Automatic annotation (TrEMBL):
Protein name: ATP-binding cassette domain-containing protein
GO molecular function list: ABC-type transporter activity; ATP binding; ATP hydrolysis activity
Cellular component terms (Gene Ontology): ATP-binding cassette (ABC) transporter complex
UniProt keyword Transit peptide present: no
Keyword Transport listed: yes
This protein's UniProt keywords: ATP-binding, Nucleotide-binding, Transport
Xref: SMART domains: AAA
InterPro entries assigned to the protein according to its UniProt record, in alphabetical order: AAA+_ATPase, ABC_SmlMolc_Importer, ABC_transporter-like_ATP-bd, ABC_transporter-like_CS, P-loop_NTPase
Positions of the ABC transporter domain: 2-231
Length: 249
């Protein structure tokens, strides 16, 4: 279980404001909102890349707020993938295992399983700068999960892919999560992606989470004007003159 407990973080004029949510063990949790609302900052705060100004972060009731990033057992995949161009696909994926001084035999066993799962075994000896966007994305994902992280953080991981590749990757994400049950937090601005992948969705706006619910609840019964406008565009109708009664068309 992950708990983000009333977290604040200021960056000049922008602030994460009282971020509070819990992600259950094995859950696929999506943070959904437009660009510039603090989604990536939440992930990086969980990963330990920032010292938060106020609040606490827990994994399984252990307070990790001041734990170094390398000791949190968290995997993070960015939109830009951040692969090592001078290393082969094999060495990119195995990087974390080698850093943990895992035996070569064990590394080979894990690599075989992960690369088969993601259909990239045939790429192991290639350099990453010779891969397509979809292939680089799968390699980055393999590198993140090969160490069996307690929490997996995904930052707009499919936004740079073409529609067909994006859909294929979303299907793979769902299959892999069903198999591994890794607790996952995925940030995106794509509601269709959130609807397909999420067990629950948190809607964020201007550094503040405005509601959390299942995809069905968020889609059918949004509780805030912002959530309704973000999901349905401008299909928000005010039912009477004093705006007390509201209805989603």
């Amino acid at each position: 279980m992950l708990k983000v407990n009333h977290v604040y973080k200021s960056f000049g004029e922008f602030e994460l404001n009282d971020i509070h949510f819990q992600v259950n063990d094995g859950e696929y949790f999506v943070i959904l909102g437009p660009t510039g609302t603090g989604k990536t900052i939440i992930l990086e705060s969980i990963a330990g890349m920032y010292n938060i100004d106020k609040g606490d972060i827990y994994i399984d009731d252990l307070n990790i707020t001041n734990v170094l990033p390398e000791n949190r057992n968290i995997g993070l995949v960015y939109q830009s993938y951040l692969l090592f161009p001078h290393l082969s696909v094999r060495d990119n994926i195995a990087f974390g295992l080698k850093a943990r001084k895992t035996k070569k035999q064990d590394i080979n066993l894990v690599l075989d399983e992960i690369t088969k799962m993601l259909n990239i075994k045939h790429l192991l000896n290639r350099k990453t700068n010779n891969l397509s966007g979809g292939e680089r994305q799968r390699v980055a994902f393999a590198r993140a999960i090969v160490t069996n992280p307690k929490i997996l953080l995904l930052d707009e991981v499919s936004s740079a892919l073409d529609p067909n590749t994006k859909r294929e990757f979303q299907i793979n994400l769902k299959k892999i999560h069903k198999k591994l049950h890794t607790t996952t937090i995925h940030v995106t601005h794509d509601f269709n992606e959130a609807l397909y992948l999420a067990d629950r969705i948190a809607i964020i706006n201007k550094g503040r989470i405005c509601e959390i619910g299942t995809p069905e609840d968020i889609f059918n019964h949004p509780k805030t004007d912002f959530a309704a406008k973000f999901i349905y565009g401008n299909n928000l109708k005010y039912g009477d003159e004093d705006n007390e009664q509201r209805q989603i068309l």
